[in-house]
Design goal:
Elements lengths: L4 H8 L4 E7 L6 E7 L1 E3 L2 E4 L8 H8 L2 E6 L2 E10 L2 H15 L1 H7 L6 E5 L2
Antiparallel strand pairs: 1-2, 1-5, 3-4, 4-7, 5-6, 6-7
């Protein structure tokens, strides 16, 4: 039985990192990696660490299906790539507030894209 997004949001509220899986654009296989996120209401914000050069982001452009997993709870969602500089800047601000400006500066090298996931 699939996990509900309500159950996922309960787990996300307690987590700093999720396991994100996408379909590889070349391999066609599910590829998973840990990523940071910001949850606000029913919206999950993701910021690729190397911006548009990030592999999972490139894969997302070919297949928008994503699997988000935290504490053994997994749901399939659809990611929406965002390139509007104002929206990307607001996502970067959300990450700075959650993780601290120095860590965002330390781990993220390019701020040209973000991904928005609606969890409703």
């Amino acid at each position: 039985m699939p996990t509900s997004t309500t159950e996922l949001k309960d787990h996300l509220a307690q987590a700093d990192e999720i396991e994100l899986a996408v379909i590889g654009r070349k391999s066609g296989r599910k590829i998973s990696r840990p990523v940071w996120f910001v949850l606000e209401g029913d919206t999950l914000y993701l910021l690729p660490v190397k911006g548009s050069d990030t592999e999972w982001y490139k894969n997302l452009l070919h297949d928008r299906r994503m699997w988000i997993s935290v504490d053994g709870v997994e749901v399939q969602v659809e990611g929406t790539p965002v390139t509007d500089p104002k929206v990307v800047a607001s996502v970067v601000d959300k990450f700075r507030k959650k993780y601290g400006a120095s860590d965002v500066k330390k781990y993220y090298s390019k701020f040209d894209v973000a991904v928005i996931v609606k969890l409703d």
